[in-house]
Specification:
alpha/beta; single chain
């Protein structure tokens, strides 16, 4: 990862999960001014994710905006189409100054378009149309695997215990959804 735009403020799309929480630590370690936004899009896990996002924001001493998008993206079936695009475009309403960064915690190893280098390039083209290149979308962990993001988090003391990853939104994670399985596998890979 390289520090590309050190004079900009950074708005992190903070879900309360490991990836976006690692972003908070990353940008603070770069000396950047950081704020975060959490979006309620009708996800089952909203209450627990928001609680986690608040804990992460409090831990790092950053401002957290909470925004209800006012509609539901539908039942979860493995991929919420257009979700990251929606978040990035909605985040533009929270930018403090014309030269800003929106940081998203996507990583490699997923089959989804909106977690790919092409997505970042395409969404940047849209933002260039609106802001003439002064607002950038960055994904510092884009070339990292999920395991590498987790290892980064451990190495840099990201408070993983404050994060939340269950798609069903239960107080005690279900242990059987894809996010819970991923998290269990990450724990096992670093403890072996």
């Amino acid at each position: 990862m390289t520090k590309e735009y050190s004079t900009c403020s950074v708005l992190i799309l903070l879900s309360g999960g490991i990836d976006s929480s690692a972003l908070v630590q990353y940008h603070i370690s770069q000396g950047e001014k950081v704020e975060a936004v959490f979006f309620d899009y009708g996800q089952k896990s909203c209450k627990q994710e928001l609680l986690s996002a608040k804990k992460i924001s409090d831990y790092y001493g950053i401002n957290l905006h909470h925004k209800e998008l006012g509609f539901k993206l539908g039942d979860y079936k493995g991929e919420y189409h257009c979700r990251n695009s929606l978040f990035i475009l909605a985040a533009c309403g929270f930018l403090e100054k014309p030269t800003s960064l929106i940081s998203i915690g996507i990583h490699s190893g997923t089959p989804f378009y909106d977690s790919s280098p092409n997505f970042i390039k395409d969404i940047q083209t849209i933002l260039n149309g609106y802001f003439g290149g002064t607002t950038r979308v960055i994904a510092p962990f884009l070339d990292y695997s999920k395991c590498q993001v987790y290892e980064y988090s451990i190495k840099n003391d990201v408070p993983i215990e404050l994060t939340y990853s269950c798609e069903l939104g239960r107080i005690k994670p279900c242990g059987s959804c894809l996010s819970c399985i991923d998290r269990r596998l990450l724990n096992e890979s670093t403890s072996s």
